[in-house]
Amino acid sequence: MVAPVSRRLSGRHLAFTLLIVSLTLLLSASAIARNKHSPFRTAPDRGYASALAAANRFLQAWQNQDHETGLLMLTDAAKQNSSEGRMETFFSSGSDSAYEIARGKRLTDGRYAFPVTLFPYHPDANKPDQPQKSEIVLVRAGKDEWAIDKLP
Q1: For the chain, percent of residues with pLDDT exceeding 70
Q2: What is the pLDDT, as a whole number, of residue 4?
Q3: Phi and psi angles of residue 74, each rounded to the nearest 5 degrees, phi first
Q4: Whole-number Cα distances in Å, 22 to 4, 13, 27, 77
Q5: CB 13, CB 7: distance < 8 Å
Q6: What is the C-alpha to C-alpha distance for residues 6 and 13, in angstroms, rounded to an integer?
């Protein structure tokens, strides 16, 4: 009678061991999949961080309707590609406007592009305008200085 009891214990032990091994494999596979698809596999370079900060400053100028600051951050090419009327309209976003900047990428020519979504709000319309998805492109203008080469 002792033999059947030890077999039952070893069967339970085997089942428990299989359960632990299965859970370990499942968790390992989940961690590998999570790391494989993570957008932050590598740390951004120094240029990325300063370009992102410049994009944020420019969009803050847009949000605050600060035409002067925004215009000073544009390259000559960006100014030539935008009429004065378009610039006036662009910087008249409304007092409760907002923006989002998504993860950007370094372009082959050393510039950086950041996807942005603008949420303009004009109080006279009594509702927010439709969000505008676009991209802002920055080019190096000095050691740690960046200029807007393409408006959103």
Answers
A1: 69
A2: 57
A3: -85, 145
A4: 27, 14, 9, 60
A5: no
A6: 10
Element (H, E) at 129: none
> Cα separation of 44 and 104, whole Å?
10
Instruction: For residue range 42-69, list pLDDT tens digits in order.
Output: 666 779 999 999 999 999 999 999 999 9
- Nearest by Cα to 55 from 119, 110, 136: 136
Tell me the C-alpha distance between 32 and 28, whole Å.
Answer: 6
Would you tell me how many other CB atoms lie within 10 Å of the CB of residue 115? Answer: 15
**Cβ–Cβ < 8 Å for 137, 148:** yes
Each residue's pLDDT tens digit, 77-115: 999 988 888 888 888 887 788 999 999 999 989 899 999
As a whole number of angstroms, the distance between CA 88 and CA 35 comes to: 45
* Phi, psi of 34, deg, nearest 5: -65, -45
CA quadruple 97, 56, 151, 83: dihedral positive or negative? Answer: positive
Q: 30-45, pLDDT tens digit by residue?
A: 666 665 555 556 666 7
Tokens of 54: 């410049």
Q: Residue 125 and residue 142: Cα distance in Å, rounded?
A: 41
